[in-house]
Design a protein that fits this description.
Blueprint (H helix, E strand, L loop, with lengths): L2 E12 L2 E12 L3 E5 L6 H9 L6 E6 L2 E2 L5 H6 L2 E4 L11 H8 L7 H7 L16 H14 L4 E4 L8 H18 L2 E6 L11 E6 L2 E6 L13
Parallel strand pairs: 3-8, 3-9, 6-7, 7-8
Antiparallel strand pairs: 1-2, 1-4, 4-5, 9-10
């Protein structure tokens, strides 16, 4: 299976704390990959290293065969990356409609596709994002990223605050988009949702190391493995 992006012996430090201890992790191209683990396991640090939000203190980040370790976030965005962080993922002063327009590219997915996926947003289009609930803000952030039609989509706990039906719709869309458009998605979760059983790969992180890598349904992906 071809690899879209990979961490090769990556180490990440935040001051005196080393969050990733020489992580090797490969993300299959055109598929969905899930990073499992508890808070503090290193899941978010993996996403930040992939996105360029943090510069590894060791190792390399390779995207489509190119060493992008030294590239910043804006440079990776131009190459087709989109990141939805777990917190502060919207601009409070912008309306929902402005968020969707901000994310859209000339050849990217139009806003109406995001509204088809999340019809809950239709009534919120004139509202400023700062007035929305946490779950509504999460919908806006994910929808904005999808309208950009990224090649590589990174989602940090996208289910947080979402109703189960909305989360299931999102998972189905990510899996179908991978199959139809070749988009590669990496998302984090504390346990593996049943609606992501079609994911290509699962990596379980524990204290900054990869404890298991495999496919959904294998013993290492059980909920206890993320503790």
């Amino acid at each position: 299976m071809p690899v879209e992006v990979a961490l090769l012996a990556v180490r990440v430090r935040y001051g005196p704390l080393e969050a990733l201890h020489g992580v090797d992790l490969a993300v299959p191209s055109g598929r969905v990959t899930v990073l499992l683990g508890r808070n503090g396991s290193g899941r978010t640090s993996v996403l930040h290293a992939l996105a360029g939000l943090v510069r590894p203190t060791g190792g390399r980040v390779v995207w489509r065969g190119r060493d992008v370790t030294a590239l910043g976030v804006h440079q990776r965005v131009r190459l087709g990356l989109a990141l939805v962080p777990a917190e502060r993922a919207v601009f409070p002063s912008l309306t929902v409609a402005e968020h969707l327009a901000l994310g859209a590219r000339p050849r990217g997915g139009p806003a109406h596709e995001a509204l088809e996926l999340f019809p809950e947003l239709a009534a919120l289009l004139p509202r400023r994002a700062g007035t929305l609930s946490g779950g509504q803000q999460q919908l806006v952030a994910v929808a904005r990223a999808l309208t950009a039609a990224p090649r590589l989509l990174l989602l940090d706990e996208p289910d947080r605050g979402l109703a189960p039906a909305a989360a299931a719709r999102l998972h189905a869309h990510l899996l179908s988009s991978a199959a139809t458009t070749g988009r590669t998605t990496v998302l984090t979760a504390q346990t593996l949702p049943a609606t992501l059983a079609g994911a290509a790969a699962v990596h379980v992180l524990h204290r900054g190391e990869v404890g298991f890598s495999g496919e959904p349904g294998e013993p290492g992906t059980a909920p206890h493995a993320a503790r």
